[in-house]
Amino acid sequence: MRYPSLLLLSACVAVPDANESTPDSALDDTGPTDSASDCDDSASVDHTRCQDLSGLVAVHAGDVNRDLWDDIVYVYNSGLWCASLNQGGELQTPHIWLDADEPPEGAFGSLMGDVDGDSRDDVLWAPLDAWGDLSGELHLALSTGDAFAPVGEGSLLPGESTEALPCKVSRALVADVDGDGRGELVVMDDGDGNWCAGRFNEERFSDFVLWTEDHGAQSTTLLHGDVDGDGCEDLGAHYPPYDGAPSYVSGDWQIIGPSGSTGCSPTAPADSENDLWVKWIDDYGQEAVAAFLGDVDGDRRADAIWTDGTGEWTVGQSTGTSFDRTALFGASGLGEGATFFVTGDFNADRHADVAQLNQETGVWSCAAGEAGGLVPEGCL
User: Fold this and answer.
1) pLDDT tens digits, 337-371
2) For residue 132, what is the DSSP state?
3) C-alpha angle with apex 317: 214 to 71, nearest 5 degrees?
4) pLDDT tens digits, residue range 279-301?
5) 341, 364 contact by CB (below 8 A)
6) Fewer beta carbons under 10 A from the terminal one: N or C of the chain?
């Protein structure tokens, strides 16, 4: 069973309280913090609709307004999209960012990341087929700091020709694989395990290259993060066991590369003499309902993070070549019954934090990343 991330957006958000102080850690951003001060839709939009979580289908974490504090985006099956800005570790009341003209037909999937290099996370989305694979047209909405503006009409992929897009699209993520501050769209074909990376060029994604092939087709979760600290995000996959899975699938975490082996450039397809699909840890996270890569201890290398859904979170520290399952402590006691799980920097200290939402109660629980591991505390 896969755990796809879902979402999309666009519209105005609430103006944060101007009297609230901003911690010093949020003042070293290279660009200005965006404001929603010019947004005047409050009289015409009923933002209280965001408070009904019964139709919630997904949650994302990302910095949508370039202030270094990761925010929360809620996605509803009706086509309603709400954003809750993170002001100094306090989530503001969610506000509508997009209200679709009509409900989506069937399930849809999405990914979140900064594809245009402005330090604000953007969103992409596409329909899902009966197997949970992305299908149909892929769309993009760029963050303006107080809205997500849709780009173009129709699909933003170059087409079905193998010359334009040498991979079929089953799953996708956004990752900065070349270290230039702009996330590439990475697509993977579950049929043959081919991975391709392409760049957003003002109107659509193009210049796709074959990143690696014949890997990851049996994985549950696709991963991205800078596991070796070279400034480029690496790609990987987690293989927890599931019904009908091959016998070798038992909690392996595989990483492509890492990218430092090729100077952050596309890797050559792996072969018997140059196998770039490397096992970093095995028998780890067999009970995982969600798995991520994120720098918990602040050493600039992304660690392996997973939760079993019972309020227990576990971290495997990246050594640069593998994950150490004993070096960092995890977190417990975040509560059972959570439905959605995210990672992000919720206190602007450049450590990955973890958070989970109980959809029935609407309660967030959080554990902050520190040098020694995860510490349960109110980071949201």
Assistant:
1) 999 999 999 999 999 999 999 999 999 999 999 99
2) S
3) 85
4) 899 999 989 999 999 999 999 99
5) no
6) N
Which among 257, 251, 253, 317 has a CA at the least distance from the CA of 279?
Answer: 253
Q: Say if residues 41 and 11 touch (Cβ distance below 8 Å).
A: yes
Least confident of 12-26, 164-178, 365-379: 12-26
What separation in angstroms does the CA of 351 have from each of 140, 148, 297, 342? 28, 26, 6, 14
Q: How far is CA 187 from CA 165, 208, 270, in A?
A: 9, 9, 17
Q: How far apart are CA 312 and CA 332, in angstroms?
A: 4
Helices (H) and strands (E) in the chain, counts: 0, 26
Report which DSSP code applies to 56: E
247 CB-near residues (< 8 Å, 6+ apart): none
Q: Phi and psi at residue 198, in whole multiples of 5°?
A: -135, 160
- For residue 102, the one-letter residue type is E
Q: Which two tokens stand for residue 115?
A: 């594809």
DSSP letter for each residue of 292-331: EEE-SSSSSSPEEEEE-SSS-EEEEEE-SSSEESSSSB-B
Contacts of 322 (CB under 8 A, 6+ apart): 280, 281
